[in-house]
Write a structure and sequence with these properties.
Elements: E1 16-25, H1 34-41, E2 44-53, E3 58-67, H2 68-80, E4 84-87
Antiparallel strand pairs: 1-3, 1-4, 2-3
Amino acid sequence: MAIKKKKVSVSKPNTPAQQRLWLMYPPKLIKKPFIYEVGHKFKVVTNIRQATITDEIGIVCLELDGARSEVGRAITWLVKQGVNVEPVEIGVIAG
């Protein structure tokens, strides 16, 4: 009996990626320009989709476009700065 090999697709680090994220800032980080810095430190395009900023918390829905490796590096940097980063889950309603 022959064993069939499955093709495994490995995404390359330079393939284009678009990631939509929720960024949540604690009060001590609200005044820091993270989105500006991400756009200058990494080769990504930032697009703010939604934001709510108060004295207590900052919540931003941010889209990052760029090479998969750069998007990953930008996310890692944000986390290291103390920003809580979560992917946006887009649900589809069957109709």
